[in-house]
Every structure is written in C-alpha cells, then in structure tokens.
Amino acid sequence: MDRNTMDEVIAAFPIESASNGRLVEKIPYGNGHINDTFRLCCKRPDQKEKSFILQKINRDIFKNPSQLMENVVHITEYLRGIIISQSGDPDRETLNVLQTRDGANYYQDRNNNFWRVFPFIERSLCLEKVEDQKDFYDSAVAFGNFQKMLADFPVETLHETIVNFHNTPSRFQDFKKAIEEGNRERVALAGKEIAFALDREKDTAVLTNLLAEGKLPLRVTHNDTKLNNILFDEDTRKALCVIDLDTIMPGLSMYDFGDSIRFGASTGAEDETDLSKVQLDLSLFEIFTKGYLEGCAGSLTRTEIEMLPMGAKLMTYECGIRFLGDFLTGDHYFKIQRENHNLDRARTQFKLIADMEAKWDEMKAIVQRISAGI
C-alpha cells in the first residue's frame, strides 16, 4: 500500500472528527485472508484512544462491492434498531458503517479499489479456536440470536455477493470440472479422495431440493460462521457481536449451523496431517446445538431443526470438495504454506465426514433431545 493512496483513502472519511481526536497510528490488523485490513488509532485530548477498522474489499472475490455494502448497511441498520428496542448497546453489539465525508457507505479510490470503515469495538477479543466449551456455547447463542433477530428481515432485498456460495450441487459440478481439467498427476495422487467425494453425490441436493419443494424457508444467513467471526467482550468473556458480514445473503439456516460445527467441533486442525486426530467431538456438537437452538428461540421450523445434522455434513463436504478442487487445478483460491496443503485440508474434511457418518444416529438423537427440551 503506497502512502499516497493510504492518505487519500483516510482523508475521505471523517476519522478525526468522529473520534474527537488526532490520528496517530495506522497499522495492518488481524489475520484475515480475504480483505486488506488496517487499524486507525486516534488519540483524544484526554489521552484516551479511539480506533477504526479500515478495509479494502477484495474485488477478486467480491465482484460487486457496492451491492455488498448495500447488504451490510441494510443489515446493520436493521440490527441496530432491534438492539435499541431491546435496551442493548448498538455501538458494541453490531457493526456500524462510518460514512465518507460525502455521505457514501464506501470510498472508491483512483485505482478503482473499494474501501469501508467501521468504528473499532473496544475491549473485545477474537478467538481462533475453541479454548473453552463455554466460548463455543456462547458463540452458538450469538449465531442463533443473529438468526432470530433477522427472521423478519425481507430476505428478497439482499444481493447474492458470491453466486452459489453454499449451493452444494453447483459446487459439486465445479468439482467435477476440476477433475476433468486438473493436473493429471494431482488427479492421480488424489484418487482416493476423489472417489470419496463422488460416492456422496446423492447427498449434495438434499437441502436445495427441500428448499425448491417449499419445505425449508429462505432466510438471511451469515454463511461464514466460524468462531473467529464472533467478538467476545474482553471483560465478561461473553459473545458480543457477529462480524465479517461480507457473505451475508439469502440462504438456509443449516448453512450457518453446519459451518460452525465443521470449524469448531472437530478435534483436529483444518490442515492436520495426522488424520487419527480428526473426529467429530459429540460433546461440542451437543453444546453448540443447545446454544444455537436457544439463541434461535423458536424461530426455526421443525424441518430446519431435523436437517441440522445434514447441514453439518454438507458444509463439511462442500468445504472438502472446494479444497480438493483447488488442489487439482493449481491452488489458485486458498492460500497454501506447503506442498499438498489443500489436499491435506480436503483429507481432514473427508475424515470428519466419515466420523459424522459413523455417529449419525447419535447426532440426530442429540438434536431431537435438545429441541424437545427448549
């Protein structure tokens, strides 16, 4: 990032007037893989600090940033109204977009890059993995409550920021294309994993068929419900705010539930090479299911609840075939740190699926038991 561009972008936003202070520091922030993120720190006359998050939206992934920002603004303003009506703190319990000096929700620089600013939520922390079962439970309540608060939002007004993002049948077709067009040596190396994925083709359309038949409602979904997309209060350690709203769009509630299970209830890292370490932790599955359904507070239908285990399986499967497809075609999407990294990632997802299948009846029984008690 050249200094002139950075200065141009910062000048477009009323950072100092919004903070009642002087900008003293601008530094790269976080470890996200998609957008470029910076923290802007201002010092007030009383020497207290107020910060802002400045982000450049990744146009390689998000083809229409203006539509993305329209989604973000509509959702955060809607949430702000609900939080105020519930006597909450709208400055800490939802993201808030800082407008430019011209009243826009983003700034487009001379190089056609799109930038946005959020006030930094002070005294908050982000967790990269489950450190305590209570953290996982609290994140589940937060994601469930997020779903509940948006239950009456007009989903048809949202744009699809990444087309077919969680459309598993479409992802499967992309995967088959990757097999056909991929590097032949890599295709041969991944023969066992390819066969595993192809053997489960019948599962790919289970949820989309139910949606087409009118048996599942289309909802506002976050679509990237990893634990690190929740901010926790630094003082109370309670889940505070759902962040990273770039993929918020129409979807199914099982997507959000399933992605959380895939990420948080596995006993192994996403790129673990020792597959004996990768299993579904049923205790974490139960904890998250309980928190999610409590957070949803009756806003889900019976069919949605019954399909929660399938959501966990399909989100894991979908992620696995995306990792594997990227490996076959040269690792262009997911960043890698070693040879065969994406193949290792695919293998962990498929091992997790195999363990889910072995524990399928237990998963269904857990969901049934918890839903009956709420």
Largest sheet descriptor: 5 strands, antiparallel
> Strand-and-helix sequence, N→C?
HHEEEHEEEHHHHHEEEEHHHHHH
The 3D shape can be described as: globular
Task: Name the poorly predicted regions.
Answer: none
Proportion of helical residues: 40-55%
Radius of gyration of CA atoms, rounded to a whole number: 21 Å
Total beta strand runs: 10
The tally of helices reads: 14
Kindly report how far apart the N and C termini lie: 51 Å
**Mean pLDDT over the full residue set:** 95
Strand order of the largest sheet: 1-2-3-5-4
How much strand content do the residues show? Answer: 5-15%
Broad structural category = alpha+beta
Task: Describe the protein.
The chain is an alpha+beta fold. Helices cover 46% and strands 13% of the residues. It has a five-stranded antiparallel β-sheet. It has a three-stranded antiparallel β-sheet with strand order 6-8-9. A two-stranded antiparallel ribbon has the order 7-10. A hairpin with a 5-residue loop joins strand 8 and strand 9 (239-242). Helix 4 (133-149) packs parallel to helix 10, helix 5 (168-181) packs parallel to helix 12 (308-328) and helix 9 runs antiparallel to helix 10. The chain is globular and about 60 Å long. The chain starts with a helix and ends with a helix. The mean pLDDT is 95.
Which key phrases capture this entry?
46% helix; 13% strand; three-stranded antiparallel beta sheet; alpha+beta; 374 residues
